[in-house]
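User: Before I run my own analysis I want an independent prediction to cross-check against. Here's the chain; please return only the structure tokens and, at the end, one sentence I can use as a sanity check.
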Amino acid sequence: RDMYMHFKHITHRRIGTYNRFPNRDPICRFCAQENESSVHLGTCPALDNVFDTIHYLTDLSPTDDLLHSTTAEKATKRLFMLPQSTASTSREILYLLAWRYILTDFYRIHYDNAKFNSDYVVRRMLERYITLCKAALYGNNTDASRRAKADMGRQPKKRMDVNDLRPLFETNDDNELVPSRKLVTVLERLNIQHTTQQQNFTGLSDQG
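Assistant: Structure tokens:
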């Protein structure tokens, strides 16, 4: 379901932007500055905070060609996440999650006459990302099932290499998986305090 919104509305171009409806005001529901179209969404300034946060967290260099593209190239890369030699697995996942919540708000704003809040998208994106990281590392094991397996001398099966989670997560001196400093900074700014507590990452050690 995390990929469904992007797959349906971006990849298959089924997004109902205002420019497709001649009887509607064409002004973008996010930025209220330019006419709304699928191409505009790829460069909409109201979404810059979301993608700038992703670039910050994944150490995207200012010299990366993504930041020096033409308007059309930037829109295409933002919309379709074109593969880059420097792209990390984390960045690709965050892009998909970002579009999931951007598109959810895209329709919510229209039907509920609500205002767009990019920090809300970033918050939901990161909360979901952390949940996926835990599930990907050890499967959908509950705390109870982990304890039961531990009592039987069994360890939860690891499904993702910790390297796939870098640079958002790193291992500390005790070989435990912890959020990077940049991730902690963003989480604290968004008041996602519970995710920075050490016990939430207990057991997510680098076994690879």
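Sanity check: The beta strands are 169-171, 177-179.
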